Structure formats: structure tokens, C-alpha cells
């Protein structure tokens, strides 16, 4: 298909329409190939097949009607709607989609069934086969417009359908019959109320397209009966100028005009008749399937063989083979962000504006590799590829310069003024070009003319007209009035290699070299290096901005020179520490920077202040229209043109950006909370959200619908009641919280679009984490009460234990006193009783037999001596039993020695102590009882056994403590052993009582003339001192033993 110019008359018809538009969607000046194009088919997850209609609802979702059903798209993923209404058939092929201003999505199926989608639900119609909806559209006020075979044009407004046609004239039909029929049909529309009781007379056929023009006229296009319009309730037919012209689409224009798309081309209703006047001839015989008019006034035509764009600049087609090439364009749609969506038999495609426009120079030149770039006052963009040649671009066309051998040389640098151009060449020196009389006049300076070197890498033209030429490694030359002045290292330059040249506002000349930045001012040279603060002395580019700050691009990042001091910007992205190839300033105070691997826009004032924040730096890539992000090392690879645009010469082509359009924000992203799950279990968001606190992981899933660049959408979220502020921007569309305390929370989420603009009006969700029973107030009160009761019980237990210990001590003292009483009774009291008898006998014998009385008195004195010994022993036995020695063997040894020393001859029997096993300390209370039992056994042996040898054997077993006391004395009378005690004596019964009280076993063996053995066995778990783990067991067992003793 060839591209045709509009005829003059057609331009006049439409020019008003274009002038009225101020906000651009897609740039109308671009070729179709310069839009960013993306398509979705089966290979990218779109399974709908052929696309028949496209619409967008208020929540930002794109709805796609296909031959297989209904699909929703959020820019990243597709959701196919199957059977959405219980007890109905699945949604089948979709014919048309319309989103009205009341947040309704109208779905017309191929079987004339109409569905309404509202608030996440589908509403069905009833018996609509009789109503016969065949087409839907949208009125000027945003309400839905429908065409019914039975009722004619209908408008849905304020929750009801209104019939737009007037009643039939009297006599045409039976009014009563018509009223009954229409009442039936009215009841079969599920949302219809107040439908007028009349019938629609014509057209007596299905309507394929319906639209309302700016003058309020409703137009009805049919597949076989032509065109009709409805005005003042009456339907009128309009004759078409084509035979068998099937009307496929209707496009309202300004001033009540209408474009009619048919199988035989485009027609125009000019307000009074159907005509082809004003329609480009290329559209006369095109089979038009769809048409839209975007917000810029561009008319997009979908034909059976591709896409066309129609505006004041002419007609553009997809001859480039980039957009819907060769495919039928079934439907077209412009979304709220200005993107153009194309429905084809294979899927959907999107055309969108990009920040950058890239020129496919590789189609016209032998190399796409960039080089220096310069834009002159005539809006010619000059560029020189790395492989050689010099070219200019204007109005989308590329021209080349062949003069002075430039087509055979590599151009390193380009500069100029209004009427001339200067280029630095690889081999040909410095060349000036002037365009006069349709040809270039050239003048070249070489080494023969005084130029230091024929390889000129950097060229700069000063404001006074002089030109500086920096050579590859020979120094720098100044051309003034045709004369050359040269400077080298001999004149003060740090290097003869010059990579960039800039002029300061005060006339200072700046030269970039591989070893530093050189200043020439008033004939004085000064060089700045790393010692002065440069990140690297190897410099590639220079720029003095509008505030007279000199920006320096080095191999290690960006720096700037202000008031004679070098600074490195702080808090900047890592990309600004890469090799800097080019810097330019726009009129809005932004710096545009090309590095070795990035293209950035940076707020200049923020760089100077060192407080660059989010939104002050923007990175661009291929998704923004760049053909690549690798810069090229040339004197001028990034420049600003007279119109304020910024040109980039990149490694893969030439790109330009309009800063005004780049900073113009696109539509805000509409964030939406999609789902909430707790431990993987979804929560119904239709009701109040209440979550048990026993749950551990809460996940919020959200999305932000942006159809332009959904990959760049970022989110911030905040959970009131937990977070102190917004989260950092993230691309992940979920937030996870764990172990939330009981309470009320509110979840918020906001999203930013591809330009980094945040939509602060985001959704929120209230939720409550319900406390578990152990987190409720009543449970806490119950716990407090329980603690109080337990404290009281512990206190009572403690008091009881103290009382028990006091009782035990009292019982021990009472037992000891009883024993002492028995001892006194057995010893001193009996001795005193004997003394009394002796004295009484002596008294009675004195008168009768003094000698006998004397003998009685001697016997009394002997008894007194014995009583004294017994008294001493009694006092010894009465002493305190609170022992501090933990060594049982040592205590028994000491006791044996004392008892032996108290014997009548002062020596006593041989006494020894034998230990078996590892000695273990004894519990103090049980130790005293063991000591008393052993003491009583030893005392009896020493006092009564008349033994020659007494032995104590102590066995420390793991579970048993055994103590044996044995002697080789005269033994104990068998009768005493059988009865367990000697009449009037308490020693043996006392030992048994003590043993029983401490859960021990006491056994006594004796044989006359052989000796006696006393054995005491005690459980080790009771008498051995143990750790804290056995404390309670021992304690209660001890209490038990004391109770038994009572």
C-alpha cells in the first residue's frame, strides 16, 4: 500500500479538529515504525484466538472480547472468564464490549445475549433472544447505547433502559396488542424499568454499528440495509453512494459529522449528505473493519489488510511491516494512558509512545554505530558513524556529504554556527562547510597549512567565531581569521592529546586530556588532576551549564568544577561512577548523561547539593525507545538542539528525546488489593476481615494496572498498627507479615507509574487480628487470679513447712529429753537410789555394828565414785548433737577414742573403723540420727561387752548406707534379744525407734561368749546429700519419715 498525501480540501476539513487538541497521547509526528510495538499471542499466554472487541473499565483493566470468550488483561497476565453465572452456559464468543460511565461493562455475545459486569459480578438477561440485541455503543454522556431488533435503540441510564424511538402512528398496529407485547419484552430485560409501550418499525434488520454524533443524532449501520439515523424519536434512512456497502463501523467527528467504515471504503456524512469529499482516495476502496479517533485527533483505521493512521500530516500505513502487517484489524481501542490497542485474528498488539525516538539509520547507511552528533539552526541533525562518512537527518530523511572526501574519511567531531559547519577528521584535518546555491563550499586545514596534526579529534567554535581544533596527539590549534596558532606541552599543556574542548562564559578555554583538565585563561595554563579531586585524570567530555558550572565526564565518573574547586557528586547512582561519554542540559534544569552502559536524566540542582532523592534520577533503556544504552566516545555524543530536544549518538543508532514530553507524567497507576491469605488460606474480602492470632503468616496480594510499561510499576505498602512508615519501593506484588499481635490494623498500598509518579490515592483494607483465648482480658484476669491463689497456696504451704519443721524440732527435742530422762533413770537415779540404800543401811548399823556400818559406808563411797563416772558419761551423752563434721568415719573414730578413754582402766578395747566404697556426705538431719544410733551401739559395747576388740564398718553403697558395730565380748542375753529390751533400760528400744523414724532397718545378732553385731541399713536416696533435682523427693520423704516418727 502506498503512502498518499491528503488533498488540500481534506486538510481544511480536519485541521480544526487537530488544533483543538493540546495533550498528546501518541506523537502524531512519528512514523508507525517509531512507536513502541508489543504483541501478545498464543506464544505469550493469550489463548483467546481472534480478537473482536476491546474495552477498558474504570479500574484500569483491559477487557478483550474474542472468538473463544472474555479475557481480562492487567498488562502482565491474562485472566480468562469461563462460566461466571451459575446454571448458565459458559461465556461464548464475544461480539462487542462497551464500558460506560457508570462502571458497567457491557458484553454482547455472538448469540445476541447481553451481559453486564458490575462490582465484580455478572448479571444475566432473561429470554433475550426475543429482544435481539445486535450492537452496543457509547453515548456522548458515557451511558450505554444498545440496538434491539424488538425495541430499537435503547439507552441504559440510572439503572434502567429507555427506549429512544417514538410510538408508531395510530392505525399502524393494534395499540393494545403492542402494549401487551412490549410489557412482556420489558419484563424479559433483567434491568429494564419503564420501557415505553411501542414498537420499533425500521430498519427491519440487525444493526451492526451504533453511534451518537455531537449533535445528538443516533446512527445505525446495518450489514445489508445501509445507514439509518434517529432524530426526535423518528428513524430515517440515508442512501449510501456505494453498492452493497456493509457498514462495519461508525466514527463520530466534530460538528455532527460522521465517518462510515464499509466493505467498500470510508464515507463521510458532512452534516447534510453522504460523500467521499474530504476522504483521501487511498481510503475509498479499503475494506474498513474498525476506526477510532484518539485524544490527539489522529484517526486510526483498521482494514482487512492492516492499520492506517490519518491526520493533518497525511496517511501513514504499516508498509514498514511492523504493525499488524498483512493482518485484518478487527478492532481498535485507545486506553486511558494513550496507548493504541489493535485486535487481530492472532491476538492483540499495542502501540505506545516512547520517551525516545530512535532512527533506524542502519537501513540507510552501511553502519548503525554512532559517532559525533550536532544540530544546526536549520534543524538538520548531523552525525558521523564510526565507520566513516558525514550525514544529516531532517524530516525523516537522511542525506550524505560527499564533498572534500568526507564520504571516505572518519569524522571525529562536529560543530558549527548558523551558516557553517566545522568537522574534525581522522586523516583529512579540519574542514569547514558552507551551503550555498544548493552545494557545499569547503575549506580544509591540514598539517601543510600549519595544523599541528591531520588527525583532529575535538573541534569547538567559540562565540567570537574562532575555532579550536584538538588533535589526536599533537596538541591544539586555534583558527582565527584564517590564521592558526598552536599550543603543545611545550607551552604548558599536560598532554598533546585533546579529547574535548569547552568555552567558559568568561572566555576561559577548557581542554580535556588523558592526564587531566587544562584551563587556559589570560594566557595562563593550569591543570586539574586527581590531586585536585577528579575521580580520574582521563577525561572524555566537558559541558558548562547555564549556571556556569563546568561538568567533567571522566573514565571513573562525573565531576564538576565550581569556583575553581573540583567536586564529586554525593549520593548518586552507581551508574554515574561509570565512564561518562556525554552530558547535555535541557531547559528544565535536568542533565542528560550517557555512560558506558546507561542513559540517565538527573536533576542538576540535586547533584550540586548532594541530596538526590527518589525522582531526581531517572534511568532509561530500550523499553523507553532507545536502540541501546551503550554510549560512544566522541567529542559530542550528547547534545541539545535549538528546539530543546536532546540527541544521543549511541553504539546502536541515533535517538532523540523531547524533555517536555519526557517529564509529562502518564496516567497514574490504579492500585488494587487482590487477595489476602493467612497461612495459605484465602480470606473473603467481601466481609469484615477477622484473623485468628494463632495464624503465623499473613500475605497481601495487590496489583497496579498500568498498560504502558507495567514492568516499571513499583509499590509501597504500610500496615497501620505495625509499620512506622511506607516500605521501600518494590516490584513484588505481595507483602508478608508474620506473628501479628491481636488488634486492629489497616493495610495501605500505593503504586507509581513508569515515570516514577506515585498515586497516593491507593486502596486500604481494615482487618482485625482476633486474640486467642489466652490473649483475652478475661483469660489474663483468670491467670492473675490463679497466680494470686497459687501465691496464697505457696505461702500457706511455706507456713505449713515452717510449722512442720518447728514441730519436728520440738519432737526431736522431746525425744532427746525422753532419752536423757531414761539415761538418767538408768544411771544416776539408780546410782543415787543405791547410795541412799547404802547410807540408810550404814545408819541402821552404826548403833549395832559399827564395823559393818563402816563397810557399808565404804561401799557407798565406791558407789558414789561410780555415780560420778556415770554422771560424767550422762553429761557427755546429753551434749548437743548438732555436728559440723560431714565425715561419718571420722566422727565414729573420734567417738570410739573418747569412749575408750572413759573406760575403767583408761585404755579400753582395741577400736577400728573400716570404710567400703566412696565416702559420701550425709544429710545433716539424718546424719544426727545415724550418729546417735552408732553412739548408743558403741557405748553399749565399750561399757557392757567386756570385749577385747570393737570394730565399726561403714559401707557406702549406691542405693544403701550400711553401718555395722561388732565386738568380741560376752554377748547379750538371748531373752533380752527376744524381748527387744532389758527391763528398766531404754538403749536398745531407743535405737530401734530412731532407725524406724529415718526409714532405716536395725538388726542385732549376739551369741554368748562370741560377741555382738549391730547393723543399720538406710536408703541412700534419703540419707545422701543430693542435687536440686532430688530435693523435693527427699524433702517429702523426710517429712514422711518425721510423720511416721510422730
From TrEMBL:
Key words, A-Z: Kinase, Signal, Transferase, Two-component regulatory system
Keyword presence, Oxidoreductase: no
Pfam families referenced in this protein's UniProt entry, alphabetically: HATPase_c, HisKA_3, Reg_prop, Y_Y_Y
Domain Histidine kinase: residue ranges: 930-1022
One Gene Ontology CC term in the entry: membrane
CDD domains cross-referenced by the UniProt entry: HATPase_UhpB-NarQ-NarX-like, PKD
Coiled-coil portions: none
Gene Ontology MF, one: phosphorelay sensor kinase activity
SUPFAM superfamilies recorded: ATPase domain of HSP90 chaperone/DNA topoisomerase II/histidine kinase, Calcium-dependent phosphotriesterase
Signal sequence range: 1-25
UniProt cross-references to InterPro entries, sorted A to Z: HATPase_C_sf, HATPase_dom, His_kinase_dom, Ig-like_fold, Reg_prop, Sensor_HK_TwoCompSys, Sig_transdc_His_kin_sub3_dim/P, WD40/YVTN_repeat-like_dom_sf
Stated name of the protein: Two-component regulator propeller domain-containing protein
Organism of provenance: Tunturiibacter gelidiferens
